[in-house]
Structure formats: structure tokens, C-alpha cells
Amino acid sequence: MKYRGMSTGMILIRLGFNLGLVSLLGLAPLLAQVVNVEQTRLSSDSNSWTGKIDATLQYQNFNEVLTNATGRMTMQYKSRKYFVLGLGELGYSGNASVEYVNNFMLHLRYGYRMNRFSRMEVFHQIQRNPLIGINRRMLHGLGPRFRVYADSLIRLHWGTVAMHETELAMPLSTGQDGLLLLDWRSSTYLNVQVHRGPLEFSGTVYYQPLFRAISDYRISGQYSLSVAVSKRLSLNQEFTHYFDSDPPSPLAYRFMTYTMGLGYTF
After folding, report:
1. Which among 73, 74, 136 is positioned nearest to 103, based on CA atoms?
2. Is the dihedral of CA 142, 146, 152, 154 positive or negative?
3. How confident is the model at residue 4 (pLDDT cuts 50, 70, 90)?
4. 130 — phi, psi (to 5°)?
5. Which residue, of 47, 189, 192, 203, has the fewest CB within 10 Å?
6. β partners of residue 234
7. pLDDT tens across 85-118, in order?
């Protein structure tokens, strides 16, 4: 089908690009707050390397010039026995005189398949997000991941890990160094994936309490819907929520975000 000389695919691409810029207006400072690795796993049944790049960019000039940009790159290798995932995320919002957001995250995960229903995984992660009070956070974890149910339409996974957390909070307004925390935390999650035709939905919920004090916990979730425009290009929508009962910054203990953008798979 064509409209004014444009194919349906081109209309969807332009619509997704325009809606993505609109949805980012005012929301870009909140992007990349939660690291949800489950959402970054690539659907692939082949024993090979695959990758995906997601990016958004906005430039606005009202009372001041402001540039908002986010980027995410995923590289994944999967074979019958082994699984390797590398992930990098960047977020920026500001201009030449002021910087509202400048965050990043690097994540490396390795998995070994124990049987057809389970896999043991180990990961390392470093993160910085001043907006929620994190100057630096490093995580190292180990735990099993189980396939609860799988068919041609739905996949359901459950996992739990024990992770060591090193967190350095942002410097205080008084000029003192931020608080340094060293602790062990549990992370339990449930992930569901639905894939039918050009539509792919993935949703994950995390519960992460401290081992020594379960009253100190985090609850987060991320839900994404991807519509394939072509073999490699997709229109993505994503909703994220986050709650921290004892955050590094008391001003940022909860938030919600909604974003749209484009993804390219290679």
C-alpha cells in the first residue's frame, strides 16, 4: 500500500521517528536509569554472533539550546552450551554551559547451559548515574536461570542471583565525599517474551533485597513492544518503573519513563 508516493514501511519509519522525538521531550533526563538485562537479550536460535543498536537523538532550541541523546549497543553470542552478552548504554542531556544528565553502563554476562531447562550465569557491571545519586556502582553476581515454559509463541523464564554491590554515592552539597557502601544483595526476576509475526513483547519484574536487611530493597520492571518494519529495522516502545526503599539520593527513590525509538539488528 502506498500513500502520496510513500510505501507503508516508509510511513511507519517516519511515524516512529517523529513519535520518538515527541515522547523524548522532557523524558530524556530519566533514560537509562534501570539496567534491565533481560530486555536486551536478543531472540536468536542460531549459534552465532548477533547485535543490535538502539539510539535516540533530540535537539531543541526554545529559551535555551538542549541536546538529548541515548544509545545502547548489544552484542551476543549463543551456542548449544555457552552464552555471552555484552551491553553498553549512554545517556546525555545538556548544552555547552550546563549538563543535566551524563550516565553510562557497561555489562558483561557469561552463561553455561547445565541442561535443557537451566543455565548458570555470572556477570560483571559498572554504572554511573548522577541523577539518582550514583557516582559509581559495581556489581558482580552469580546464579541460575530457569526456563519455566516455552513454545512457538511464549517463553517464560525465572532466575535468581547473589551479587556483591559496591556503591559510591555522589558528593554531598557540603563538599564531603559521598557514602561508600559494600554489601550483598539478592536479585530475583521473572521474564515473559511473546513473539508473533512482526510483533515482539518482553516484560521483566525484579525484586532485589539486601541479604542482611530485607527492608532495604528495590523493585523495578521494564516492558517493551517491538514492531518489525523490515528485516533489520524495528519501531520500539518501552515503559520502565523503579522504586528504591533506601536510595543514594532521597530525592530520587522512584520514577517511571516511557520512550519510543528505532532499533537496528545486525
Report:
1. 136
2. negative
3. very low
4. -60, -30
5. 47
6. 228, 263
7. 999 998 888 888 888 788 899 999 999 999 999 9
Count, in order, helices (H) and strands (E) of the chain: 1, 14
pTM score above 0.70: yes
| Calpha distance 92→120 (Å, rounded) | 34
Compute the C-alpha angle 110/115/118, nearest 5°. Answer: 60
Q: CA 150 to CA 11: how far, in whole Å? A: 34
What fold characterizes domain 2-265? Answer: Porin (2.40.160)
Element (H, E) at 16: helix 8-24
Higher confidence at residue 76 or residue 178? Answer: 76
State the cell numbers at 7: 510505501
Spatial distance between the Cα atoms of 54 and 88, rounded to a whole number of angstroms: 11
* Closest residue by Cα to residue 81 from 120, 109, 108: 120
What ranges do the domains of the chain cover? 2-265
Higher model confidence: residue 259 or residue 108?
Answer: 108
Q: Which residues have a Cβ under 8 Å from the Cβ of 31 and sit 6 or more positions away?
A: 24, 56, 70, 91, 101, 257, 259
The CA-based diameter of the chain, rounded to the nearest angstrom, is 64
Type and span of the H or E element at 256: strand 254-265
Give the Cα separation of 60 and 221 in Å (integer). Answer: 30
Rg for the chain (alpha carbons), in Å?
A: 19
User: Where does the pLDDT of residue 255 fall: very low under 50, low under 70, confident under 90, or very high at 90 and above?
Assistant: confident
User: What pLDDT shows up at residue 6?
Assistant: 44
Q: For residues 71-101, b (16+ Cβ closer than 10 Å) or e, as one string?
A: bbebbbbbeeeebebbbebbbbbbeeeeeeb
Q: Is 61 helix (H, G, I), strand (E, B) or coil?
A: strand
User: 192 — phi, psi (to 5°)?
Assistant: -125, 135
